[in-house]
């Protein structure tokens, strides 16, 4: 029987025929990415794959080249549900099929509570309504393509430090109105096939063990019928998680739900077979959905493939451009017209760097990448008289830059040669000299995870040999070596870095790696220099932690490096190039070291001397345009001194082309900020109560998250939520409201208005509608809440378009914790409509003469 035949299986019969052991096996994964198969009953395994901005496939190490989409905050900045659904259907679902994956572990729709959160870039927005509607569009697109989604991380996973232990302490109203709301909307409008639980606690209980959240809310109130899986290594019990409603433990490596432990739990009467079969049934339901959605995956060969088409590349480029937000455009400096220019200077630490996405689960091996520098140079190719000059200006990296394009094998292939060595036995630290496998490795950040060759011992070694690309000059070169395990770097046979004998614990490699250790080598002109890294998957002793643990889940090693420069000289060179240029394009920002799964940021400032560079370059040339790259908010103390400012987020494969399209006017920007940019860290709503203190994170800002805080406290942000400029201008007018209708426990009202392009070029605009609840309420409510939005596409100069926005019960409801119900009060409601949360020129009211309550979705 073909695996896809399971699409027609009778699940009731299979559940009845499952042995206890088979049911147990179904409730936990196999390896890192698969569910368990039951061949006796024709139940196939399904494969899942990360992630939020692309589909990586099985391997972090030497993975299958894949499409890297813009980060979720970038997708959020499009405010375009049609586009997000198209991305899901035309890009993500086909990518999953190419990776032989039936389910993708995305989207993430946690709230942007604080921009310091390490995974902020993975979530759409700071607003629950925008987050939920975009998540629903993402889910609908992917699942229309026959691929399952796993919406995550349910719920309150809004930071990284101490993420498996901290307790998100929040009010009932904040839980319902802010943090659960995106999941609720996504379920209402898209019904994701699966949901992933968060690592953390909420109000004292780990979510993976929380019967209230997983059963009472999710299944009983919302009538959710899909599967609930854990985050990887995100359960902490056996019977508690089963009884709470967690169907599937992932991964199958180092799992709790083993046959031995589960059977012992049954014998102790902590669980019944019925409990386990209830969980197994939901797993079978998911497998059947996958068999119906994309049967070719289950019947296929399981191989991962890469396919790129011109159509896909065009869509990637369009999505990236649509997400870019124009923040400042003094004197109409943008779009930049190169006509008549002699020289354009490009400066900044991100101009030539490979900045695809944030780090962690979002990381993948890109099938191609266009840097900002290359994108700009390509766009200027038709302007032959324009000279492009370049200076890094100020370095911005946390760890030494990748050497992916700096190392070559003896035969001239890009990369280095890695050889795997078993040890004398599982507990020995002595490697066998004869390798069991040798291969070319074209990566210098090597996160091996579980991608080890067959036959490897529990303790093993990996040796990497290559040659550094020769320089035409003598230069000092600084290397950086990071490891989850232990490692040494030799250059031309000389030990340069010892990250083996004694180590310093760090946050790398999902929190189990070392601090980067550095060493400097003097390189001779035109000479090849031999590079050798010796790695072992057993970490070395460290002060305060003598434990030499085996890295059986997250082994890895990273070698980076760069020429040693005089930072003052490099800064001066950038300023001089700025003085000599007709215009300056500065590309600066963060990268996957600064924003990543595993740890949180400590500052909103740009790294190193970046702010100093921009200030000096802007002073040297008034025609300075800054392009910032980050997945969340950053502070910009020099903002008033630059003519143009473009925020580009992380844009994936098409980064450089999309930036160039906006800078030179091929694309008129329409992106809007999906989160507030504060003037200072101290202005952030969660400031002072963001960190885990003795395992507690107090959500003291309560309902006043994001723009709601800034409006409530009358704090002026640097750039408000929903803000974004265009190369044209729009005017909204003629606001009309229908009479509100209340019937059958629901509410409806239609708002209409006209949008007119009053500028000189075709453009698109986001119409945003905010609601204020009655001031007669006994409770405090945020002053404004986003409750509807719509995109006006490609409106020509002088043309108008009528826009309709529909409100339902969600627009007028709040959670009443006394009665555990959603409540709509009688009274006067205010509607304000505009193009940014701080620019709402249209205003009207409506009155409800009678309120009502409702439950469910």
UniProtKB/TrEMBL annotation:
Residues 411-575 form the PA14 domain. It catalyses: Hydrolysis of terminal, non-reducing beta-D-glucosyl residues with release of beta-D-glucose. Gene3D superfamilies: Galactose-binding domain-like, Glycoside hydrolase family 3 C-terminal domain, Glycoside hydrolase, family 3, N-terminal domain, Immunoglobulins. GO terms for molecular function: beta-glucosidase activity. InterPro entries: Cellulose_deg_GH3 (IPR050288), Fn3-like (IPR026891), GH (IPR017853), Glyco_hydro_3_AS (IPR019800), Glyco_hydro_3_C (IPR002772), Glyco_hydro_3_C_sf (IPR036881), Glyco_hydro_3_N (IPR001764), Glyco_hydro_3_N_sf (IPR036962). One of its GO terms (biological process) is glucan catabolic process. It comes from the Eukaryota. Its EC number is 3.2.1.21. Pathway: Glycan metabolism; cellulose degradation. Belongs to the glycosyl hydrolase 3 family. This is beta-glucosidase. It comes from Collybia nuda.
